[in-house]
Amino acid sequence: xxxxxxxxxxxxxxxxxxxxxxxxxxxxxxxxxxxxxxxxxxxxxxxxxxxxxxxxxxxxxxxxxxxxxxx
Length: 71
Prior knowledge:
single chain, three-stranded antiparallel β-sheet
């Protein structure tokens, strides 16, 4: 299968079946493994904002992940 989100793909891990990644300087940077596709998409968005700032190509997410969560 494939993901509907940028930077997200299914993986073989049973308890965290989604992985997030981003391309930076033509290299793939792993952002980790996640329980849901939406969590992985959120991680991609956060990394995209960090690396690409105003030029980031972000996923459109449903609540509660629409905006950044302060940690």
